[in-house]
Amino acid sequence: MGANSSSISELPENEYLQKLSGSEPISENDPFWNQLLSFSFTTPTNSADLKLLEEATISVCKSLVEKNPRTGNLGSLIKVFLSRTKELKISAECQNHLFIWQAHNALFIICCLLKVFISRMSEEELQLHFTYEEKAGPSSYGAECEDLIEELLCCLIQLIVEIPLLDITYSISLEAVTTLIVFLSCQLFHKEILRESIIHRYLMHGRCLPYTSRLVKTLLYNFIRQERSPPPGAHVFQQQTDGGGLLYGIASGVATGLWTVFTLGGVGSKASAQLEQCSPLASQSLLLLLVLANLTDAPDTPNPYRQAIMSFKNTQDNTAFSSSNPHAFQINFNSLYTALCEQQKSDQATLLLYMLLHQNSNVRTYVLARTDIENLVLPILEILYHVEERNSHHVYMALIILLILTEDDGFNRSIHEVVLKNITWYAERVLTEISLGSLLILVVIRTIQYNMTRTRDKYLHTNCLAALANMSAQFRSLHQYAAQRIISYTCRHLRRYVYVLDKLYFPHSHCSTLQHCFSTLSDNGEELLSLTCSHILRSYASSLFSLLSKKHNKVLEQATQSLRGSLGSNDSPLPDYAQDLNVIEEVIRMMLEIINSCLTNSLHHNPNLVYALLYKRDLFEQFRTHPSFQDIMQNIDLVISFFSSRLEQAGAELSVERVLEIIKQGAVALPKDRLRKFPELKFKYVEEEQPEEFFIPYVWSLVYSSAVALYWNPRDIQLFTMDSG
Question: Known PANTHER family for this protein (predicted)?
Answer without folding.
Answer: DYMECLIN (PTHR12895)
